[in-house]
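Action item from last week, closing it out:
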Amino acid sequence: MEGHTVADDETGLTHRRAAITELGDALRTLIEHATTTEVPTGDLLRAASELRDVAARLGERVRGRATLSRADDLLGGVRMYNPVTGAGSALAPPLHVEVVAGTAIGRCTLGLAYEGPPTFAHGGVSAMLLDQILGHAVVASGNPGMTVRLDTAYHAPVPLLTPLLLTADVLDVSGRRVTATGTIATEAEPGTALVTATGTFVGLRAEQTRRLFGSVLRARP
């Protein structure tokens, strides 16, 4: 189209990602309120009806399993709907990650939607967080791979509504196999491990990449 530039595309992408983030924030607030609300039963039923209307509007145009979101950048590491870090995911806390001197450092606060034992996080959520932070450390080491083993040790329950600190480092690289270790603690007591994990990751061969992700790669614009 005449006058259309790469900058226009980048501006549109920036706006779309901002809108996805805005919707994600609203959905996370909705989930938190939906899991803590004590409003009358009639209000619950009215809210359910209103939400079905919104869901129908969002569902008018959806992508399939083999199609990435237009807002994603697979090679650039942007995954807007990642269930742990994605700003657009209603499931994500989200976990915010940075890498400092090879160490992956993550921060998040889990709301009551993640409750397992009363007032504490579900153990599966802790494992999910650790798998993610370990993956960041592995990628940062220059040896990306997929999780093939995750050994998790629970030392103390993870409190909800409490700022958490996650860290992960690569311990060993042996060919395509990478071993990393990670920890969940609270920001207030970073030296006290609540949950620890050791993960094994294996880099994919070219044929494995084609077999597992070929349909997604072919669908990229």
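Closing note: The chain is about 35% helix and 25% strand.
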